[in-house]
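Exercise 7. Predict the joint structure of the components listed below.
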Amino acid sequence: MTGQGSDGGPLTRAAGLLLNRRTLIAGAAAGAAFGLRPRRADAVVSIDVTQGNIQPIPIALPDFVGGGGNDSDVGRNVTQVITANLKRSGLFAPIDQAAYLERVSNIDALPRFPDWRAINAQALVTGRITRQGDGRLKSEFRLWDVASAEQLTGAQYFTSPDIWRRVAHIISDAIYQRLTGDSGYFDSRVVFVDESGPKEQRVKRLALMDQDGANVRILTRGSDLVLTPRFSPSTQEITYMSFVNGQPRVYLLNTETNQREVVGNFPNMSFSPRFSPDGQRVIMSLQEGSNSNLFVLDLRSKQQVQLTSGPAIDTAPSYSPDGARICFESDRGGSQQIYVMSANGQGAKRISFGDGRYSTPVWSPRGDIIAFTKLGGGSFAIGIMKPDGSGERILTEGFHNEGPTFAPNGRVLMFFRDPGGKGGPSLYTVDITGRNEQRVPTPGFASDPAWSPLLAST
Amino acid sequence: MKLPEMKTGLTISAVIHLALLLWGLISFAAKPLEAKPNDALPVDIISDKQFSEITKGVKDGAKEKPPAPLAEKVAPPTKIEEIKPKVTEKKELDAAKADNQPPPPAEEPKPKAEATKLEKKEPPKIDPIAETLKKEETKKKAEEKAKAKAAQQLAKQPHFDPSKIAALLDKREPMRQASAADQLNQTPSLGKSDGNAAQLSQSEIDALRRRLGECWNPPPGAANGGQLKVVLRVLFKPDATVATPPQLVAATASPFGPAMAESAKRAILTCQPFTMLRADHYQQWKDIEITFDPREMFGG
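Solution:
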């Protein structure tokens, strides 16, 4: 403790040392206290928002202005079609035009956003229709975000005047896509079987209409029974089954050219074939005795390849959108269930395991779900599940719900429901979340719907 | 090398050590420590968001009484003294009500006649205003005079006399004002919710989070979009409105990304002003990074 040498007595030395140590300790304590002093956090505060509300987006759609003459009539019709489309999708809540504060007359000027904010609109669509000198129709629109006061998207289209409905559907698709992130489905058509007459003597004719029920076109005369039309996913062609003289025959119909050709006489066919994703082949089930197997037929070369064999009934096949896999219905396990196999027929695996019998599986164009009909407990139900069989969910139940078909964006399903009794079947759409079930207006009774791909993509 | 001596010493030491160790081993043998049976305490781990929600309450619930101060005895009812003369309390400028003041004789017929005609109300009123103002002035002067007198009296107090301390003692009953109230309350309260705190409180953050959750409308397609996260940075003005448009800091690459980012931006812009953020904590919340993650909503 006591050091050697150095000037001063031991007392002063000790005192010096002590002082040094004390000062050391004091200094250290002061330093620590200084380091621990409460500091204002200059860092940015971060918070997590993990809950929200799924609600339809409030959107304002004032009538499209007309460039001149009766263009404003066309403008009003276009706006009505767009409003109906968006409302029917269940994801938008168009605001009543009576509530609008600003009258839009020039779509090239900025709208008065405070007026639109006052009625709680989150999005605003303005547009203009002008008939050109050469007879074409020029349609323009702008989609505005009211909260941030900027334009989100806009486009103009030059078309012939009689397809103004298609222009409205294309604009609806653009709005839908910009605000929800999903591609739209409004510019598409549905082929179905139009039924008329008394129940014992139903006249069934093939019909084609826009997805909103407009522009209905009857394709066959009704003298022969027609069944299960199917749309090609990449071309504007339909296959359907027709019984000529009691013999089932598969026809291929091109909806644009109206040309019809016979794919083949298949005496042993029960269901209409479905197209492969490229539209060049069809897959179908053919019956042999008491069992039924899947075959692939090339439409051009008419070559047939057998995919399944065995004593079971394999039917209702559907391709995945990438063409690599096929889902189908089979009773090889004892009851009707859904199986998935690769496109060459290998590796069939069962994916449905619930209570009941599963049938008519359809693969979504997005490839993420398979829709099916389930029969159990005395009622039919339309449901969806993931391609590995998980996530099964029933969307709608009823006495006779059947034949699901997907919209081109894979978000909406159309099916037909037969209430039984004196009435007849009708077409319904439902969102894949099970919400927003809506009836599709048809001229008479309707069944067996099939949804086309987006017209613009073919 | 004195080995023999060392040897004896060594052996004695070794023997004693061994003896000690053996004794230690035996005497400190393993007696299992008895654990007294504890009462199991139910413990619930909750997040601070849940904690705030416990105290959230319902909009139409009974209003909570403010925390009562400690009261050890019931205070005698205090008489409400009227310090000022009655007249000045009534500051209404309606001349008809100033009964105590002798209204100027010229005013009397006018106020009585003005019952139906509004225009005539205006001129008579101005005069009563002046009247009451004048009266207030005179009263103020009187009060000041009284105060001056009292001060003078205090100043006239005699110098401190130690022998007369007893006389100077306050003879009133000892009564701490702070601990006497109308009702007895033995438990002192915890303080008030608007007491000063330097940091942005957790309940403010939760209130902000909840408000944003109410306004946020994520695109429904995001459910199947997988891991979709959007981070926006927002700068606020002191009145809790947004200073600049929210900037996108990060977002997962996905076809739903732009729609998600826009829905988040929309939520922030339509939800302003955020009144739950307290002005005295402005330095804490002027710059906030908000992460919108819909996973919980879609059961992810």
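Discussion. The helical segments of chain A are 10-35, 71-89, 113-118, 164-180.
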